[in-house]
Amino acid sequence: MNDTRYMARSAAIASRPLGDETMVMSAASSTLFTLDEIATLLWESADGVTPLDEIVRNKICARYDIPPDVALRDAENFIQQLAGHGILLISDKPLAAANSSPRETR
């Protein structure tokens, strides 16, 4: 079984960075999400081709004093929540680049 996870932002969203945070709105439900600094790192890294464990190791653990197993578990829970709202796509295989192009509003 492949435990590697890839994530990409849904095309059905609008997002806007605000300092260290990001605001994300689902086009389907008009639900607004505020992502904190660590969640924003995950969001910005959701390119569909970089494995989640690599993102956690290189972007989160390298920057924050968080044990890798805790950071990965928290990241997996977080991306599952966003996927449940339809704003993030998750796969055990790399995702097509077309799926990872968010619409940013300014």
Low-pLDDT residue intervals, each spanning 5 or more residues: 98-106
Helical residue percent band: 25-40%
Order of strands, widest sheet: 4-3-2-7
In the CATH scheme, the class would be Alpha Beta
Counting DSSP H or I runs of 4 or more residues, the number of helices is 3
Helix-strand makeup class: alpha+beta
Shape: globular
Order of helices and strands: EEEEHEHHEE
CATH fold-level name: Outer Surface Protein A, domain 3
- In terms of DSSP E residues, the strand content is 25-35%
Sketch the major β-sheet: 4 strands, mixed
How many domain modules?
1
N- and C-termini, Cα separation: 42 Å
Q: Which CATH architecture?
A: Alpha-Beta Complex
- The tally of strands reads 7
**Mean residue pLDDT:** 88
* Radius of gyration using CA atoms only: 13 Å
Strand and helix layout:
Blueprint: E1 6-9, E2 13-18, E3 21-26, E4 32-35, H1 37-45, E5 47-51, H2 52-61, H3 68-84, E6 88-91, E7 103-104
Parallel strand pairs: 2-7
Antiparallel strand pairs: 1-5, 1-6, 2-3, 3-4
Helix pairs in contact: 1-2, 2-3
Kindly describe this structure.
With 106 residues, the protein is α+β, with helices and mostly antiparallel strands. The chain has one domain (6-90): Outer Surface Protein A, domain 3, CATH 3.90.930. The chain is 34% helix and 29% strand. It has a four-stranded mixed β-sheet. A three-stranded antiparallel β-sheet has the order 5-1-6. Helix 1 crosses helix 2 and helix 2 packs across helix 3 (68-84). The longest helix has 17 residues, at 68-84. The chain is globular. The model is unreliable at 98-106 (pLDDT under 50).
